[in-house]
Design brief:
heterodimer, A: about 230 residues, mainly alpha, 9 helices, about 75% helix, about 5% strand, globular, B: about 250 residues, alpha+beta, Ubiquitin-like (UB roll), Fumarate Reductase Iron-sulfur Protein, Chain B, domain 2, 2 domains, 5-stranded mixed sheet, about 10% strand
Chain lengths: ~230, ~250
């Protein structure tokens, strides 16, 4: 094996991949949330639909989104490899289990990640797939004054989907899993990179905790808002 | 005090073990090991096989007295080895479950005794300084800042007992290996070889079948010498620098 594959398959190399892909996905959460906040504009979805059309047609965004799909896949596959290798390395379990010294999130990252992945399938199947590959039967076309080409009415689809209480519930469960996943993942990513410092780690942990509560909560407001307002 | 002990009994590595119950009459001044001595004495008198457990110094510095007590390596107290754990921390009538270290890289030899030679092989792979660093007084020939010496000493406090591996849900030896890497690499005599050392030790650690760190912090919480998780971050840093920065293509 070359030095590079040796490095990437070492215990620390694998953790580095988890850390970097995780941090990338965290940055995506911010961008995606900012875009989604346009759903709250009181303009019948004009701003959001024009924004959604831009996000699916701009070549630079298209390029970055391929990276995003790849990193989601890499983070998932690497996470599963870590989970199975770690399970094998532990071997048998203790008769008395100890949950006092570790957090719930840190012990269940793989399980929480699986919940988030399941949520992603539901979410992307409902919106992303229909936006990208669905024809006019999936989404209506709308035109807005000052914007010559017709755009897909994703806003209407969002409003329609979130009138379904089961889907809203699935979103809330998925976002709760995400919150716990982030609670451990955010600060853990820095530790894996070797960033642990008396001056800065408390700050990283504080930002991590705030991020893992505020961001999923902000996302959760969207389905709740639509469910009660439409 | 009357206690019910549930002790892991396993004849050898090939056999299947199980927890067995015993009644022990102990007093609160005994250490946990002395309480086991009482149990073994009674087993011998009954012509039964005594419980095998490792012990040596019985003063908290050798790292031999390894057992998981009620789910916690070295018992419930912070910064304490099993031999320094006294029975006054338990109550009359308590049931105490005693198990061996659990990890694939620590196969059970008998009862509570596990084979920890995997840790020795990590040391053999690079946990040393290759040149003669002189006698005790020669240490004063090189000026070392107090903070740096203290930092190295904190890592050097590791007694290699393996509680970190036992506590870790992933059976990872990262805290042990990191303590050695930081202890040697922080000193000027050991700094020279840090790059080759960290690569060799991490490679050996992976080869032994230890798991990968997921930063749960279980190791730090149960380490009898309170080795900090910051050591792992330091080792990660050293390993990344050695793998990506060194000229060696291996």
């Amino acid at each position: 094996m070359s030095w590079f594959s040796n490095f990437l398959t070492s215990s620390i190399g694998r953790k580095l991949i988890m850390s970097l892909t995780g941090l990338f996905l965290i940055s995506f959460l911010i961008i995606h949330l900012i875009g989604n906040l346009q759903l709250f504009y009181d303009d019948g979805g004009q701003a959001f639909n024009i924004y959604a059309a831009f996000m699916t047609s701009n070549p630079l965004i298209k390029f970055v989104s391929i990276g995003l799909y790849f990193f989601i896949l890499l983070h998932t596959v690497q996470g599963l490899i870590l989970w199975s290798k770690n399970k094998a390395a532990k071997g048998s379990k203790y008769a008395v289990s100890n949950t006092k010294t570790t957090s719930f999130a840190s012990r269940n990252m793989a399980l929480l990640g699986t919940f988030v992945l399941a949520f992603l399938f539901i979410h992307m199947g409902d919106f992303w797939f229909k936006m990208k590959f669905g024809g006019s039967d999936a989404l209506n076309m709308v035109t807005y004054p000052g914007h010559e080409t017709a755009v897909k009415d994703l806003y209407e689809k969002v409003a329609y989907s979130f009138s379904n209480p089961l889907l809203v519930l699935a979103y809330l469960v998925g976002l709760l899993a995400l919150a716990f996943h982030l609670m451990h993942g955010f600060q853990s990513a820095f530790q894996s990179l070797g960033i642990n410092h008396k001056k800065y780690t408390p700050l990283i942990q504080m930002i991590g905790l705030a991020f893992s509560i505020i961001v999923p909560l902000a996302y959760a407001i969207i389905p709740i808002f639509f469910f009660f307002n439409r | 005090m009357k206690l019910t002990l549930k002790v892991w009994r396993q004849q050898n590595n090939a056999s299947k073990g199980a927890l067995e119950s015993y009644q022990v009459e102990a007093n609160e001044h005994m250490s946990f090991l002395e309480m086991l001595d009482v149990l073994n004495q009674s087993l011998v008198e009954e012509k039964k096989v005594p419980v095998a457990f490792e012990h040596d110094c019985r003063e908290g510095i050798c790292g031999s007295c390894n057992m998981v007590i009620n789910g916690r390596p070295h018992g419930p107290n912070q910064g304490t080895t099993t031999c320094q754990l006294h029975m006054r921390y338990f109550k009359d009538g308590d049931t105490i479950v005693v198990e061996p270290w659990r990890a694939k890289a620590f196969p059970v030899i008998k009862d509570l005794v596990v084979d920890r030679s995997s840790l020795d092989r990590i040391i053999q792979s690079g946990g040393y300084i290759s040149v003669n660093t002189g006698q005790a007084q020669d240490a004063n020939a090189i000026a070392i800042e107090k903070d740096r010496a203290a930092h190295a000493f904190d890592a050097a406090a590791c007694i290699g007992c393996g509680a970190c591996v036992a506590a870790c849900p992933n059976g990872s030896a990262m805290l042990f290996t990191a303590a050695k890497v930081v202890h040697l690499g922080t000193m000027p005599q050991g700094e020279v070889e840090e790059s080759t050392r960290v690569q060799a030790m991490v490679n050996q650690m992976d080869e032994e079948g230890f798991g990968m760190c997921s930063n749960t912090g279980a190791c730090e919480a149960d380490c009898p010498k309170e080795i900090s998780l910051t050591n792992i971050a330091e080792m990660n840093r050293a390993y990344l620098a050695a793998s990506l920065g060194s000229q060696k293509k291996s």
